[in-house]
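Predict the 3D structure for this chain.
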Amino acid sequence: MKSLLLVTRRLRELFGRAAAISIAVALLAGHSSVAAQSGRTAEHWVGTWATSEVGRPQTPPPPVAPVAAAPASPGSPAPAPAPPAPFMHFNNQTLRQIVHTSIGGNRARVVLSNTFGTTALTIGAAHIARRDTASAIVPASDRALTFSGRPTITIPPFAMVYSDPVELNVPALTDLAIDLYLPGDTNTSSPLTMHNGAFQTNYVSQTGNHAGMAALPVVATTPSWFLLSRVEVMAPETVGAVVTFVDSITDGTRSTPDANHRWTDYLAARLMTQPGGAQMAVLNAGIAGNRVLSEGAFNVGINALARFERNALDQPGVTHIVVLEGINDIGQARQNPTPTAEDVIAGHKQIIERAHTRGLKIYGATLTPFDGAAYFTKEGEAKRQAVNQWIRTSRAYDGVIDFDAAT
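Done. Predicted structure below.
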């Protein structure tokens, strides 16, 4: 994992300096022509924050028995270790989850997801507000959310729901708090829709509905997001969104929790400084460990081809997509034999075709070095080089972001 840490740090450095400027200018230049030709109305909904969901099993795997552990007393078994995180569930509790915006707006709505749930899930209350510090909110900014005019909603299996819009001043590059009161016990046979690696402290209340309280009575924290899909704001027609469709390097793995130090956070800040400002939202659709062609453990999500429509193409206001996927197919795929470079390239071609069918610009990012990772092999390195050579030279993508050369 040392190489991942170095690559992530290097990308953050780059997106804080000149490399981000060139990418920002390229994105904005392409966006101008797309927006001019779109014929959109004066305003439209654009995502300001998003995440990619996975389905977490509700029953944790059985604990591993301790090896050669001495019993506490004659004839008594050694205690089994506690179930590993993040197998947290909620019962008659309120979640306060923190998200960081890219663009701003004066109207907002929230999209909730039970995409991986096999049973209906009830939201007893929902609120949105600007965060103050830690788990506290700015009281004057608190807004109760409704769904089709109702304060509660039961989300059907495999479904997503939109809140009704609320009037709220949402600044760019700021933290929002989204409260969800869950009146029932989520520890059922149904997978819980969530994003494992938020790299953001989120808060779990004492028993009861505490949505909208200025100071949440916190009993636990979690580093994951639950049931959230995205936050949208109403923005001028000239504002679009770039979706980064990616894996751990972009999801935030090894970045500092609660600091918003993913390279996409730096890109969002850089885009705000460009002439005209606020012309491009940045939506992080990364899932650590994600693969183009196959699945792994629950937390790495379904394969990129399967999730591309929901996590990228269907994002509101999307005009551009950046793809950085494939290293986990090469290094960590469970197929035997592992995919060839040609297999990974074929997957990329499918993604490109689907984006172009929607009239979107799509950029290919070269795969970063993985020497030093536990799954590094010389064979895998040869595949990485072959995939990168194709990304650079095939002209299949509308442009290339050469992370490999930068790192």
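The chain has a mean pLDDT of 88.
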